[in-house]
């Protein structure tokens, strides 16, 4: 996929995509329109985080993690696809990091916390 329109056509409910792929038999011609139905995709291994713990500021999207000194740190992440109520993390987190999933209103970077 090298282009996804950011608007839905209000008359048809369609979204325009541009996908580059091999067409060795010339089945599709330039400018031709097709209907594409994507039912699912499979990830081999991925880190996912709940959508409700992802925050955003001018620096981008981040989650709150607890470091080895039991202090809160903002960890910026690059997110990929949404899976139900979760985000796939493309980069920025490593397996085993401790995330704050509740009490986000009270947690501030630099504050000490007691992790459960």
How many DSSP helices? 0
Element string (H = helix, E = strand): EEEEEEEEE
Task: Report the end-to-end length measured between terminal Cα atoms.
Answer: 42 Å
Which class do the helix and strand fractions yield?
A: mainly beta
Strand runs, count? 9
Task: Describe the largest sheet.
Answer: 4 strands, antiparallel
Our estimate of the beta-strand percent is 25-35%
Poorly predicted tracts of residues: none
Q: From the alpha carbons, calculate the radius of gyration and give it in angstroms.
A: 20 Å
How confident overall, as mean pLDDT? 87
Percent helix among the residues?
Answer: under 10%
Tell me, what's the shape? elongated
Explain the layout of strands and helices.
Blueprint: E1 3-4, E2 17-18, E3 47-50, E4 55-57, E5 60-66, E6 72-76, E7 78-83, E8 86-91, E9 98-99
Antiparallel strand pairs: 1-2, 3-8, 4-5, 5-6, 5-9, 7-8
What does this structure look like?
This protein is mainly β and 116 residues long. The chain is 0% helix and 32% strand. The protein is built from no helices and nine strands. Strands 4, 5, 6 and 9 form a four-stranded antiparallel beta sheet that branches. Strands 3-8-7 form a three-stranded antiparallel beta sheet, with no helix packed on it. A hairpin with a 2-residue loop joins strand 7 (78-83) and strand 8. It is elongated, with a radius of gyration of 20 Å.
Provide a brief overview of the structure.
With 116 residues, the chain is an all-beta fold. The chain has strands at residues 3-4, 17-18, 47-50, 55-57, 60-66, 72-76, 78-83, 86-91, 98-99.
């Amino acid at each position: 996929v090298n282009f996804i329109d950011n608007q839905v056509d209000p008359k048809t409910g369609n979204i325009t995509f541009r996908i580059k792929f091999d067409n060795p038999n010339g089945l599709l011609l330039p400018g031709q329109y097709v209907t594409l139905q994507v039912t699912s995709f499979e990830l081999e291994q991925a880190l996912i985080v709940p959508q409700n713990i992802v925050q955003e500021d001018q620096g981008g999207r981040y989650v709150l993690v607890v470091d080895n000194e039991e202090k809160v740190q903002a960890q910026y992440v690059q997110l990929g696809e949404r899976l139900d109520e979760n985000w796939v993390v493309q980069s920025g987190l490593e397996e085993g990091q401790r995330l704050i999933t509740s009490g986000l209103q009270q947690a501030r970077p630099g504050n000490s916390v007691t992790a459960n």
